[in-house]
Write a structure and sequence with these properties.
210 residues; mainly beta; Porin; eight-stranded antiparallel barrel
């Protein structure tokens, strides 16, 4: 009886161990990486100019392009270009509100970042940093006001569905925070929103042990 019980325990152990180390096929992102991110956001920018607060806020559109390479499975290093723009926004001068139509406000940036996919769900997180500048022009004026070069950071969390082994379409949430100097003052730029993403990147089978 004891020998039979010992054999039964050994069989269970082998069966459980074998199931835990069974070989499976999973998917991994590899090679050339291209992603376009486009969407709508709420933007808020604040500048303190000689103790007088100026604020620019409103609905905005944004776009980011990423070009990179998968250094390891699902881990991608990329270069990026991004821009955000408002065509109509609320302008607050020391707390007094004005709605400016026909004006322009935009922030551009060039930088780099990393993106990581959690497979097999194809959910990803992307973090980028950029050299940024802000430009704005008031209605009725041809003069553009430009900031000096500052910095910006972009966080994107998204989910993609593969249309083929190379093309994916998805949705994402985006958050941006940056600071740019202008003269003796500085402007803080933030925006957050939702986006549609399109990605070209080869997804291949990867041998894994579970």
């Amino acid at each position: 009886m004891r020998k039979l019980l010992s054999k039964f325990i050994i069989v269970l152990f082998i069966a459980g161990f074998g199931a835990s180390v069974s070989a499976q096929q999973s998917k991994a992102h590899r090679g050339l990486f291209l992603r376009a991110v486009s969407g709508a956001a709420f933007s808020n920018s604040i500048m303190d100019n000689n103790n007088i607060e100026q604020k620019y806020s409103g609905a905005a559109g944004f776009f980011q392009a990423q070009v990179g390479w998968a250094l390891w499975d699902n881990l991608i290093l990329f270069g990026s270009f991004d821009m955000m723009g408002m065509g109509e926004f609320d302008y607050y001068l020391d707390g007094e509100k004005q709605t400016l139509k026909g004006s322009e406000f935009k922030t551009n940036g060039v930088g780099a970042g990393v993106s990581y996919y959690f497979m097999p769900s194809n959910v990803y997180i992307s973090l980028g940093f950029s050299r940024a500048e802000t430009e704005f022009k008031f209605s009725g004026s041809d003069a553009e006001i430009e900031s000096d070069n500052g910095w910006g950071s972009t966080l994107i969390v998204g989910k993609e569905w593969m249309l083929s082994d190379d093309w994916g379409l998805g949705v994402a949430g985006i958050f941006y925070y940056g600071v740019v100097p202008r003269g003796t003052s500085s402007m803080t730029n933030t925006y957050f929103g939702v986006a549609i993403t399109g990605t070209f990147n080869t997804v291949e089978s990867s041998f894994s042990i579970n």
